[in-house]
Amino acid sequence: LWYVDTAENKTITANILISAWGGLNLPKLPNLASLETFKGVSFHSARWNHSFDLTDKTVAVVGTAASAVQFIPEVAKKVKQLFIFQRTPNWITNRDDGTYSAQMQWYFKKFPILMQLHRGLLYLRNDLINFSLFTTGSFIGKSLRKQLEKRIHQEIADSRVMDAVMPSYQPGCKRILINNDFYQTLNRKNVALITDKIDKITADSLVTEQGKDYKVDAMIYATGFNSLSYKKMDILGKNGDTLAGIWGNEPEAYLGISVPKFPNFFSLLGPNTGLGHSSVILMVECQVNYIIGCLNKMLRQDWKSLEVKEEAMRRYYQDLWKTMEKRVWTKENCMSWYQNQDGKVFALWPGNTIQYWWATRKPIFDDYIST
User: Fold this and answer.
1) Which of the residues 19, 115, 155, 230 could staple to 108 if both were Cys, CB 3.0 to 4.6 A apart?
2) Would you call 297 helix, strand, or coil by DSSP?
3) CA 208 remoteness from chain centre
4) Does one domain contain both 204 and 285?
């Protein structure tokens, strides 16, 4: 049995435990010891302070990744001055938001199969064509890089800003951002892009390592999430070992779902099942169907326990790393939250979603210990 202790001091017992806590849910703040000295308003973008009016304020945004490029254009319209502190530039592509005409909408409504076909083609474009940009030296990767570089030259007026936002790594190394108006926002007179490293935070400012002091009324942290969120929870296996202790900074799970020494434990969006090119919902659906397959087998066979074998997981990861070596995420000049501190990619699935669907379409029970 699994025993789940809640924050309300209640204990729940269950035969099966399924982890569905997600991968990006705990906001991460900058690693600066002086954060608490700031006396103005500060908050993480995932915990937005809706009671604070940004109008005519001087505001600092720390970070320029996925969340930042979405809210910065809107914040810039309200504030008196916006300082954007960038650590690493990101590749940004346009949103693919074409308008569907009234006639096209009529066709979709009258003939649903046309809409299904359209959605299917969009999916296959992402999974079979766009995915190839993650392969080192791919034609589509090189072509996309030229296209994105051209966009930067076209949309940014200041050559110094242009150089500052131009990434040095291949597209796909980090998450490719999708936005239509971030670059234009950098042209505004009330916006300044700062690439100097932050040294400390005072009661009313951010100070860079070059000694420049930026006085602000508020700070917004767009610094991402703690991708090792499993460390915040104690999950004890059959030998009393914790999942966090076994994984450390290198989480591993068979198909991202099952872990040796943790019988009747299944995970959704576990290690190496994230995506950078398509909807992760499909991955979750594959995992749910896989888990249901395991539970149905346990019911039919009257098994009380199901635990993946150590050798099965080792074999699975040997194949996974062979594929991973071909991807841009593993190259020397590519560092991202996809990796742990040693540079090992633990977040992403190295194949396309069709390959993952095939791998999880039905459980291979020879890879499990059943009792």
Assistant:
1) 115
2) helix
3) 28
4) no
Tokens 């066709």 locate to: 107
Contact 327, 135 (CB under 8 A): yes
* C-beta of residue 171 within 8 angstroms of C-beta of residue 91: yes
Q: Which two tokens stand for residue 58?
A: 């001087």
Average pLDDT per block of 10 residues along the chain, 371 residues long: 92 95 86 90 96 97 96 98 97 90 96 96 91 90 95 96 95 93 97 96 95 97 88 87 92 97 96 93 97 98 97 97 93 86 92 96 97 95
Query: Residue 203's domain is classified under what CATH number?
Result: 3.50.50.60
Q: Work out the number of other CB atoms within 10 angstroms of the CB of residue 290.
A: 22
How many domains are there within the chain?
A: 2
Residue 90 lies in a domain: yes
Among residues 20, 29, 41, 5, which one has the least CA distance to residue 219? Answer: 41
Residue 34 and residue 202: Cα distance in Å, rounded?
A: 7
DSSP symbols for 143-160: HHHHHHHHHHHHH---HH
Q: What is the pLDDT of residue 293?
A: 98
The residues near 139 (Cβ < 8 Å, ≥ 6 apart) are 132
Identity of the amino acid at 81: Q
Reported as type and span, the H/E element at residue 116 is helix 112-124
**Calpha distance 262→243 (Å, rounded):** 8
Residue 145, domain member (yes or no): yes
Backbone angles phi, psi at 37, to 5 degrees: -75, -15
pLDDT tens digits along 4-16: 999 899 999 999 9
DSSP code string of 34-78: TGGG--SEEEEGGG--TTS--TT-EEEEE--SHHHHHHHHHHHHH
Q: How far apart are CA 72 and CA 330, in angstroms?
A: 30
Structural domain of residue 175, as residue ranges? 35-95+139-221
Cα gap 124→146, rounded to integer Å: 23
